[in-house]
Design brief:
It is a single chain. The chain is α+β, with helices and mostly antiparallel strands. It has two domains: 157 residues, Nucleoside Triphosphate Pyrophosphohydrolase (Alpha-Beta Complex), CATH 3.90.79.10; 140 residues, Aminopeptidase (3-Layer(aba) Sandwich). Helix content is 29%, strand content 35%. The protein has eight helices and 15 strands. Strands 1, 2, 3, 4, 5, 6, 7 and 8 form an eight-stranded mixed sheet that branches. Strand 3 and strand 4 form a beta hairpin.
């Protein structure tokens, strides 16, 4: 099975690299918590792992590094993600392994790790994602943390994001997400709990939500009339944008519609929603200049614009 690879090109990249550093890192989950290394003196988190030594097996490296940093013995599985970062004339390779906790070992910190007070922390996955999602906050103050947090954020998003069918139990979180997004339009009838319930009953297999560690990060409503498909109210939470969430939702919805023999899909986006229109253009949804969009309300509707 091929390993998914994600690249990050730094603004200071020279265009070619002379040096390479490979590290092996462990994704260790316990229920809804993930094992992280925490620097008590700097307040910085990271996924445990470190440099691959000459001639060392990658799984052995992951096992050794996780135990040395955290004191937790793990059993690494296969490598599930490679994240390649390019800065100046360096290529930094991080290979992530899913690991099962297998007992207590001996923490052996480097001098630098001891100085910053490194200790293991079991952190709720949702909180870990939120922590690493702050990477842009360090752009002007701490370039090392910015790069580290961006790396770990991309890794968690790639490894832990799950797209599943939407159910009515999701409604409150979905509605809150919709209200947090700008330049969208709703009304008090079609988008009420009852209205969305009707939509899901008619389209039980084509509406989806995206989650990371239990946190709702995106939603898409899709349905059809037996002839044409329609997409409504796709939204991605601000902290999770530009990480493939929208793409994953669209791909899942279009595949579901195609499975129901729908050959064409339409949607409506406000003209002033520049970000939304740019996204849909990238997805191959073109603007029809030969049509007039018309509608007529059959009942009184209270419009809700975000």
């Amino acid at each position: 099975m091929s390993v998914k690879t994600i690249e990050t090109i730094g603004a200071n990249y020279f265009g070619a690299w002379r040096y390479t550093r490979t590290a092996c890192r462990g994704i260790v989950l316990r229920g809804d918590e993930i094992l992280l290394s925490y620097e008590t003196r700097t307040g910085q988190y990271m996924i445990p792992g470190g440099a691959l030594e000459d001639g060392e097996d990658e799984r052995d490296c992951c096992r050794r590094e996780v135990e040395e940093e955290t004191g937790v013995v793990v059993q690494p599985g296969r490598c599930v993600l490679e994240l390649d970062e390019y800065y100046e004339d360096w290529k930094y390779v991080s290979r992530y392994f899913r690991c099962a906790p297998a007992g207590e070992g001996v923490q052996r910190l480097t001098e630098r790790e001891a100085q910053v007070g490194m200790e293991p922390r079991w952190v709720p996955v949702e909180r870990a994602v939120a922590e690493f999602a702050t990477h842009a906050d360090y752009t002007d103050t701490d370039e090392m943390r910015r790069g580290l947090y961006l790396r770990e954020y991309k890794a968690l998003m790639a490894l832990l994001m799950r797209v599943r069918p939407m159910v009515m139990d999701d409604y409150d979180r979905v509605y809150a997400l919709w209200m947090s997004c700008k330049n969208m339009g709703f009304n008090d009838v079609d988008d009420s709990r009852e209205g969305i319930g009707r939509y899901l009953r008619r389209n039980p297999d084509t509406c989806f939500v995206a989650e990371v560690g239990g946190a709702l990060c995106g939603v898409i409503l899709a349905g059809h009339d037996g002839r044409r498909g329609f997409i409504h109210h796709m939204a991605v939470a601000e902290a999770y944008r530009r990480q493939g969430v929208g793409q994953a939702l669209v791909d899942r919805a279009l595949a579901a519609l195609q499975a129901e023999q729908i050959s064409k899909v339409a949607l409506v986006a406000f003209r002033y929603n520049e970000a939304g229109n740019a996204f849909w253009e990238r997805q191959g949804f073109t603007v029809r200049e030969d049509l007039n969009y018309r509608n007529r309300a059959l009942v009184a509707l209270k419009r809700i614009d975000t």
